[in-house]
Design a protein that fits this description.
Blueprint: E1 9-11, E2 14-16, E3 22-28, H1 35-47, E4 52-56, H2 60-63, E5 70-73, E6 76-79, H3 80-86, H4 91-103, E7 107-111, H5 115-123, E8 129-131, H6 139-146, E9 152-155, H7 161-179, E10 188-193, H8 208-216, E11 219-224, H9 231-238, E12 243-247, H10 265-281, H11 283-294, H12 296-303, E13 323-327, E14 342-346
Parallel strand pairs: 3-4, 3-12, 4-7, 8-9, 9-10, 10-11, 11-12
Antiparallel strand pairs: 1-2, 5-6, 13-14
Helix pairs in contact: 1-4, 6-7, 9-10, 9-11, 10-11, 11-12
Protein backbone atom coordinates (compact mmCIF):
# COMPACT_ATOMS: atom_id res chain seq x y z
CA UNK A 1 0.00 0.00 0.00
CA UNK A 2 1.41 3.36 -1.04
CA UNK A 3 1.50 5.64 2.01
CA UNK A 4 0.69 8.61 -0.22
CA UNK A 5 -2.34 6.96 -1.77
CA UNK A 6 -5.53 8.80 -0.87
CA UNK A 7 -8.20 6.67 0.80
CA UNK A 8 -11.92 7.42 0.78
CA UNK A 9 -15.06 6.16 2.45
CA UNK A 10 -18.46 5.92 0.74
CA UNK A 11 -21.52 6.65 2.90
CA UNK A 12 -25.04 6.89 1.50
CA UNK A 13 -23.72 7.40 -2.01
CA UNK A 14 -21.32 10.22 -1.07
CA UNK A 15 -17.56 9.71 -1.20
CA UNK A 16 -15.65 11.47 1.55
CA UNK A 17 -11.93 12.12 1.21
CA UNK A 18 -9.10 14.44 2.15
CA UNK A 19 -10.46 16.79 -0.51
CA UNK A 20 -14.01 16.56 0.86
CA UNK A 21 -14.00 15.50 4.53
CA UNK A 22 -17.09 14.38 6.40
CA UNK A 23 -17.61 16.77 9.34
CA UNK A 24 -19.44 15.22 12.28
CA UNK A 25 -21.08 17.21 15.07
CA UNK A 26 -21.01 14.84 18.04
CA UNK A 27 -24.16 15.62 20.03
CA UNK A 28 -23.76 12.49 22.12
CA UNK A 29 -26.18 12.66 25.05
CA UNK A 30 -26.08 16.45 25.45
CA UNK A 31 -29.78 16.60 24.63
CA UNK A 32 -30.38 14.99 28.07
CA UNK A 33 -33.28 12.99 26.67
CA UNK A 34 -35.26 16.11 25.69
CA UNK A 35 -36.51 15.76 22.11
CA UNK A 36 -37.01 19.50 21.71
CA UNK A 37 -33.46 20.17 22.85
CA UNK A 38 -32.20 17.49 20.47
CA UNK A 39 -33.95 19.21 17.58
CA UNK A 40 -32.59 22.59 18.67
CA UNK A 41 -29.08 21.10 18.60
CA UNK A 42 -29.69 19.57 15.16
CA UNK A 43 -30.84 22.96 13.85
CA UNK A 44 -27.76 24.65 15.30
CA UNK A 45 -25.46 22.00 13.81
CA UNK A 46 -27.09 22.42 10.40
CA UNK A 47 -26.45 26.16 10.54
CA UNK A 48 -22.72 25.53 11.06
CA UNK A 49 -22.64 23.59 7.76
CA UNK A 50 -21.77 20.29 9.45
CA UNK A 51 -22.45 17.20 7.33
CA UNK A 52 -23.57 14.88 10.09
CA UNK A 53 -24.96 14.74 13.63
CA UNK A 54 -24.05 11.86 15.89
CA UNK A 55 -25.95 10.51 18.88
CA UNK A 56 -25.35 7.78 21.46
CA UNK A 57 -27.88 5.10 22.45
CA UNK A 58 -27.12 4.65 26.12
CA UNK A 59 -28.15 1.87 28.49
CA UNK A 60 -26.14 2.06 31.70
CA UNK A 61 -25.87 -1.68 32.25
CA UNK A 62 -24.34 -2.15 28.78
CA UNK A 63 -21.45 0.13 29.69
CA UNK A 64 -20.66 0.00 33.40
CA UNK A 65 -21.32 -1.93 36.59
CA UNK A 66 -23.00 0.13 39.36
CA UNK A 67 -19.98 -0.58 41.59
CA UNK A 68 -17.79 1.47 39.26
CA UNK A 69 -18.55 4.36 41.60
CA UNK A 70 -17.51 7.90 40.77
CA UNK A 71 -15.80 8.62 37.45
CA UNK A 72 -13.80 11.76 36.67
CA UNK A 73 -15.31 13.66 33.72
CA UNK A 74 -14.73 17.16 32.29
CA UNK A 75 -17.43 18.55 34.59
CA UNK A 76 -16.09 16.78 37.70
CA UNK A 77 -16.54 13.42 39.40
CA UNK A 78 -19.97 11.81 39.16
CA UNK A 79 -21.55 8.39 39.61
CA UNK A 80 -21.55 7.70 35.88
CA UNK A 81 -23.77 4.59 36.03
CA UNK A 82 -26.51 6.64 37.71
CA UNK A 83 -26.10 9.44 35.21
CA UNK A 84 -26.29 7.03 32.29
CA UNK A 85 -29.56 5.69 33.72
CA UNK A 86 -31.07 9.17 33.44
CA UNK A 87 -29.95 9.37 29.80
CA UNK A 88 -31.68 6.20 28.64
CA UNK A 89 -34.18 7.06 25.90
CA UNK A 90 -36.75 4.87 24.10
CA UNK A 91 -36.39 3.78 20.45
CA UNK A 92 -39.00 6.34 19.43
CA UNK A 93 -36.69 9.15 20.53
CA UNK A 94 -33.95 8.08 18.14
CA UNK A 95 -36.39 7.42 15.33
CA UNK A 96 -37.65 10.98 15.66
CA UNK A 97 -34.18 12.59 15.80
CA UNK A 98 -33.07 10.55 12.79
CA UNK A 99 -36.07 11.71 10.79
CA UNK A 100 -35.52 15.31 11.88
CA UNK A 101 -31.79 15.26 11.13
CA UNK A 102 -32.41 13.90 7.66
CA UNK A 103 -35.08 16.56 7.07
CA UNK A 104 -32.29 19.08 7.71
CA UNK A 105 -30.12 17.29 5.09
CA UNK A 106 -27.77 15.92 7.73
CA UNK A 107 -26.42 12.39 7.92
CA UNK A 108 -27.67 10.65 11.08
CA UNK A 109 -24.95 8.70 12.86
CA UNK A 110 -25.18 6.85 16.14
CA UNK A 111 -23.03 4.86 18.56
CA UNK A 112 -24.31 1.65 20.18
CA UNK A 113 -22.64 0.23 23.29
CA UNK A 114 -24.00 -3.30 23.48
CA UNK A 115 -26.63 -5.77 22.19
CA UNK A 116 -29.68 -3.77 23.30
CA UNK A 117 -28.57 -0.45 21.82
CA UNK A 118 -27.29 -2.20 18.68
CA UNK A 119 -30.69 -3.82 18.17
CA UNK A 120 -32.41 -0.43 18.39
CA UNK A 121 -29.93 1.14 16.00
CA UNK A 122 -30.29 -1.66 13.46
CA UNK A 123 -34.05 -1.11 13.35
CA UNK A 124 -33.42 2.54 12.45
CA UNK A 125 -31.64 1.43 9.26
CA UNK A 126 -28.71 3.87 9.50
CA UNK A 127 -26.35 4.52 6.60
CA UNK A 128 -23.24 4.01 8.76
CA UNK A 129 -22.25 3.07 12.31
CA UNK A 130 -19.81 4.66 14.77
CA UNK A 131 -17.89 2.53 17.30
CA UNK A 132 -16.41 4.44 20.24
CA UNK A 133 -12.82 3.91 21.37
CA UNK A 134 -13.64 1.91 24.55
CA UNK A 135 -15.56 -0.60 22.44
CA UNK A 136 -12.74 -1.20 19.93
CA UNK A 137 -11.95 -4.44 21.80
CA UNK A 138 -15.60 -5.41 22.43
CA UNK A 139 -15.56 -8.55 20.28
CA UNK A 140 -19.26 -9.35 20.54
CA UNK A 141 -20.35 -5.86 19.48
CA UNK A 142 -17.88 -5.75 16.58
CA UNK A 143 -19.16 -9.09 15.26
CA UNK A 144 -22.74 -7.88 15.45
CA UNK A 145 -21.99 -4.62 13.62
CA UNK A 146 -19.85 -6.36 10.99
CA UNK A 147 -22.80 -8.49 9.96
CA UNK A 148 -24.80 -5.41 8.98
CA UNK A 149 -22.61 -4.69 5.96
CA UNK A 150 -22.56 -0.93 6.65
CA UNK A 151 -19.68 1.57 6.62
CA UNK A 152 -18.06 1.69 10.06
CA UNK A 153 -16.30 4.62 11.70
CA UNK A 154 -14.00 3.07 14.31
CA UNK A 155 -12.40 5.29 16.95
CA UNK A 156 -8.97 4.14 18.10
CA UNK A 157 -8.28 6.10 21.26
CA UNK A 158 -6.33 4.42 24.09
CA UNK A 159 -5.38 1.52 21.80
CA UNK A 160 -2.26 -0.17 20.47
CA UNK A 161 -1.61 -1.33 16.92
CA UNK A 162 -2.40 -4.92 17.90
CA UNK A 163 -5.81 -3.85 19.27
CA UNK A 164 -6.65 -2.07 16.02
CA UNK A 165 -5.50 -5.03 13.94
CA UNK A 166 -7.72 -7.43 15.90
CA UNK A 167 -10.77 -5.17 15.57
CA UNK A 168 -10.28 -4.75 11.82
CA UNK A 169 -9.87 -8.50 11.34
CA UNK A 170 -13.22 -9.07 13.07
CA UNK A 171 -14.98 -6.40 11.02
CA UNK A 172 -13.40 -7.55 7.77
CA UNK A 173 -13.94 -11.29 8.19
CA UNK A 174 -17.55 -11.05 9.32
CA UNK A 175 -18.45 -8.56 6.61
CA UNK A 176 -16.72 -10.67 3.98
CA UNK A 177 -18.72 -13.71 5.05
CA UNK A 178 -21.96 -11.74 4.99
CA UNK A 179 -21.25 -10.50 1.47
CA UNK A 180 -19.68 -13.81 0.34
CA UNK A 181 -16.61 -12.07 -1.03
CA UNK A 182 -13.17 -10.91 0.01
CA UNK A 183 -12.93 -7.26 0.93
CA UNK A 184 -10.03 -5.15 2.18
CA UNK A 185 -11.72 -2.91 4.75
CA UNK A 186 -13.19 -0.61 2.06
CA UNK A 187 -16.08 0.47 4.29
CA UNK A 188 -14.05 1.35 7.37
CA UNK A 189 -12.65 4.69 8.49
CA UNK A 190 -10.24 4.54 11.41
CA UNK A 191 -10.65 7.64 13.56
CA UNK A 192 -7.42 8.45 15.37
CA UNK A 193 -8.32 9.68 18.84
CA UNK A 194 -6.80 10.60 22.20
CA UNK A 195 -8.92 9.37 25.10
CA UNK A 196 -8.49 12.31 27.44
CA UNK A 197 -11.03 15.04 28.23
CA UNK A 198 -9.77 17.49 27.18
CA UNK A 199 -6.88 16.10 25.16
CA UNK A 200 -3.78 18.28 24.65
CA UNK A 201 -3.36 19.26 21.01
CA UNK A 202 0.29 18.23 21.20
CA UNK A 203 -0.69 14.62 22.02
CA UNK A 204 -2.34 14.04 18.64
CA UNK A 205 0.62 12.76 16.61
CA UNK A 206 -1.24 13.43 13.36
CA UNK A 207 1.50 11.99 11.17
CA UNK A 208 0.06 8.62 12.20
CA UNK A 209 -2.91 9.10 9.82
CA UNK A 210 -1.18 8.20 6.53
CA UNK A 211 0.65 5.37 8.29
CA UNK A 212 -2.59 3.86 9.59
CA UNK A 213 -4.13 4.10 6.12
CA UNK A 214 -1.10 2.47 4.54
CA UNK A 215 -0.75 -0.34 7.09
CA UNK A 216 -4.41 -1.31 7.30
CA UNK A 217 -5.76 -0.24 3.92
CA UNK A 218 -8.44 1.95 5.50
CA UNK A 219 -9.37 5.57 5.24
CA UNK A 220 -8.47 7.61 8.31
CA UNK A 221 -9.80 10.57 10.22
CA UNK A 222 -9.76 12.20 13.63
CA UNK A 223 -12.11 12.27 16.58
CA UNK A 224 -10.85 15.37 18.32
CA UNK A 225 -11.18 15.97 22.07
CA UNK A 226 -8.90 19.00 22.19
CA UNK A 227 -10.32 22.41 23.02
CA UNK A 228 -8.88 24.40 20.12
CA UNK A 229 -11.46 24.74 17.37
CA UNK A 230 -9.16 24.59 14.35
CA UNK A 231 -5.64 23.29 15.00
CA UNK A 232 -6.14 19.51 15.14
CA UNK A 233 -9.00 19.36 12.59
CA UNK A 234 -7.25 21.43 9.91
CA UNK A 235 -3.86 19.80 10.40
CA UNK A 236 -5.53 16.38 10.32
CA UNK A 237 -6.90 17.17 6.86
CA UNK A 238 -3.37 18.07 5.74
CA UNK A 239 -2.34 14.57 6.86
CA UNK A 240 -5.08 12.87 4.85
CA UNK A 241 -8.11 12.80 7.16
CA UNK A 242 -11.38 12.23 5.34
CA UNK A 243 -13.52 12.41 8.51
CA UNK A 244 -13.42 15.00 11.30
CA UNK A 245 -15.50 14.51 14.43
CA UNK A 246 -15.78 16.97 17.30
CA UNK A 247 -18.17 17.38 20.23
CA UNK A 248 -20.89 19.99 19.73
CA UNK A 249 -22.91 21.90 22.31
CA UNK A 250 -25.19 24.92 22.50
CA UNK A 251 -23.14 26.31 25.39
CA UNK A 252 -20.18 25.01 27.41
CA UNK A 253 -22.17 25.95 30.51
CA UNK A 254 -24.90 23.43 29.69
CA UNK A 255 -25.15 20.28 31.86
CA UNK A 256 -24.30 17.67 29.21
CA UNK A 257 -21.54 15.19 30.06
CA UNK A 258 -19.25 16.44 27.29
CA UNK A 259 -20.36 20.07 27.10
CA UNK A 260 -17.29 21.48 28.93
CA UNK A 261 -15.00 20.25 26.10
CA UNK A 262 -17.45 20.69 23.21
CA UNK A 263 -17.59 23.50 20.64
CA UNK A 264 -20.57 25.89 20.73
CA UNK A 265 -22.05 26.84 17.34
CA UNK A 266 -19.81 29.84 16.63
CA UNK A 267 -16.62 27.88 17.31
CA UNK A 268 -17.91 24.83 15.44
CA UNK A 269 -18.58 27.10 12.45
CA UNK A 270 -14.95 28.26 12.65
CA UNK A 271 -13.84 24.63 12.63
CA UNK A 272 -15.97 23.80 9.60
CA UNK A 273 -14.53 26.79 7.74
CA UNK A 274 -10.97 25.80 8.69
CA UNK A 275 -11.49 22.20 7.57
CA UNK A 276 -12.96 23.26 4.24
CA UNK A 277 -10.11 25.73 3.70
CA UNK A 278 -7.53 23.03 4.47
CA UNK A 279 -9.21 20.65 2.04
CA UNK A 280 -9.22 23.29 -0.67
CA UNK A 281 -5.71 24.67 -0.07
CA UNK A 282 -3.95 21.31 0.13
CA UNK A 283 -1.38 20.02 2.64
CA UNK A 284 1.57 22.26 1.79
CA UNK A 285 -0.30 25.56 1.98
CA UNK A 286 -2.20 24.45 5.09
CA UNK A 287 0.96 23.51 6.95
CA UNK A 288 2.65 26.76 5.90
CA UNK A 289 -0.35 28.79 7.08
CA UNK A 290 -0.52 27.21 10.53
CA UNK A 291 3.25 27.31 11.03
CA UNK A 292 3.20 31.04 10.28
CA UNK A 293 0.09 31.86 12.33
CA UNK A 294 0.35 29.42 15.25
CA UNK A 295 4.07 28.72 15.41
CA UNK A 296 6.28 26.11 13.80
CA UNK A 297 7.15 24.43 17.09
CA UNK A 298 3.50 23.94 18.07
CA UNK A 299 2.53 22.57 14.66
CA UNK A 300 5.43 20.12 14.64
CA UNK A 301 4.50 18.87 18.11
CA UNK A 302 0.91 18.28 16.99
CA UNK A 303 2.10 16.41 13.89
CA UNK A 304 4.30 14.23 16.09
CA UNK A 305 6.50 11.32 15.12
CA UNK A 306 4.01 9.22 13.19
CA UNK A 307 4.73 6.24 15.44
CA UNK A 308 1.61 4.66 16.94
CA UNK A 309 1.81 4.66 20.72
CA UNK A 310 -0.40 5.60 23.64
CA UNK A 311 -0.46 9.38 24.11
CA UNK A 312 0.89 10.70 27.43
CA UNK A 313 -2.54 11.97 28.48
CA UNK A 314 -4.24 8.60 27.92
CA UNK A 315 -1.63 6.04 29.03
CA UNK A 316 -3.21 5.64 32.47
CA UNK A 317 -6.57 4.85 30.83
CA UNK A 318 -5.35 1.75 28.98
CA UNK A 319 -7.34 -1.34 30.05
CA UNK A 320 -9.54 0.86 32.26
CA UNK A 321 -11.68 2.66 29.70
CA UNK A 322 -11.49 -0.39 27.40
CA UNK A 323 -13.80 -3.38 27.84
CA UNK A 324 -12.99 -6.45 29.92
CA UNK A 325 -14.97 -9.28 31.51
CA UNK A 326 -16.56 -8.30 34.83
CA UNK A 327 -18.66 -10.18 37.38
CA UNK A 328 -22.27 -9.02 37.42
CA UNK A 329 -22.88 -10.49 40.88
CA UNK A 330 -20.85 -11.82 43.79
CA UNK A 331 -19.39 -15.11 42.60
CA UNK A 332 -18.30 -17.53 45.34
CA UNK A 333 -15.26 -19.77 45.19
CA UNK A 334 -16.25 -23.15 43.69
CA UNK A 335 -19.25 -21.83 41.74
CA UNK A 336 -19.65 -22.76 38.07
CA UNK A 337 -19.72 -19.70 35.84
CA UNK A 338 -22.69 -19.36 33.53
CA UNK A 339 -23.97 -16.78 31.11
CA UNK A 340 -25.56 -13.91 32.99
CA UNK A 341 -22.88 -14.03 35.68
CA UNK A 342 -20.52 -11.76 33.75
CA UNK A 343 -20.35 -9.24 30.90
CA UNK A 344 -17.86 -7.18 28.93
CA UNK A 345 -17.90 -3.75 30.56
CA UNK A 346 -15.71 -0.69 30.91
CA UNK A 347 -13.57 -0.91 34.02
CA UNK A 348 -12.84 2.73 34.86
CA UNK A 349 -10.46 3.47 37.75
CA UNK A 350 -12.19 1.98 40.81
CA UNK A 351 -12.37 -1.63 39.63
CA UNK A 352 -9.74 -4.08 38.42
CA UNK A 353 -9.65 -5.11 34.74
CA UNK A 354 -10.53 -8.65 33.75
CA UNK A 355 -10.05 -10.93 30.77
CA UNK A 356 -10.41 -9.66 27.21
CA UNK A 357 -14.00 -9.68 25.89
CA UNK A 358 -12.98 -12.36 23.39
CA UNK A 359 -12.80 -14.75 26.38
CA UNK A 360 -16.49 -14.40 27.31
CA UNK A 361 -17.56 -17.66 25.68
CA UNK A 362 -14.46 -19.55 26.85
CA UNK A 363 -15.14 -19.05 30.56
CA UNK A 364 -18.67 -20.40 30.52
CA UNK A 365 -18.76 -23.58 32.61
CA UNK A 366 -15.44 -22.86 34.36
CA UNK A 367 -15.19 -23.10 38.14
CA UNK A 368 -14.29 -20.03 40.18
CA UNK A 369 -10.98 -20.56 41.99
CA UNK A 370 -11.48 -17.38 44.01
CA UNK A 371 -14.41 -15.38 45.27
CA UNK A 372 -15.08 -12.56 42.80
CA UNK A 373 -16.91 -9.48 44.11
CA UNK A 374 -19.67 -8.00 41.96
CA UNK A 375 -18.24 -5.52 39.46
CA UNK A 376 -14.65 -6.71 39.62
CA UNK A 377 -12.84 -8.06 36.57
CA UNK A 378 -12.62 -11.83 36.19
CA UNK A 379 -8.93 -12.66 35.79
CA UNK A 380 -7.31 -15.81 34.46
CA UNK A 381 -6.24 -16.78 37.98
CA UNK A 382 -9.87 -16.54 39.15
CA UNK A 383 -11.07 -19.49 37.06
Amino acid sequence: MNENEKKTILIDGIEYSQDKPLIIAELGTSHNGDINRAKEMIDAAAQTAADCVKFQIVFADEILHPNTGEVALPGGKIRLFDRFKTLESPPEFFSEVKEYAESRKLLFLCTPFGPKSASILKELRPHAVKIASPELNYTGLLKEIAGWGLPVLLSSGVSKLSDIETALEILNNDTAKAEKKRIDYPQICLLHCVTAYPAPETDYNLKILPSLSAVFGVSSGVSDHSCDSTLVPALAVSMGACVIEKHFCLSRNDPGLDDPIALPPDEFSQMVKAVRQAASAGPEKTLDFYRQTRGESLVDKILGSGIKELAPSEKANYRYTNRSVHALRDIKKGEVLKKGDYAALRTEKNLRPGLEPSMEDAIEGRIARNSIPAGEGIRLEDI
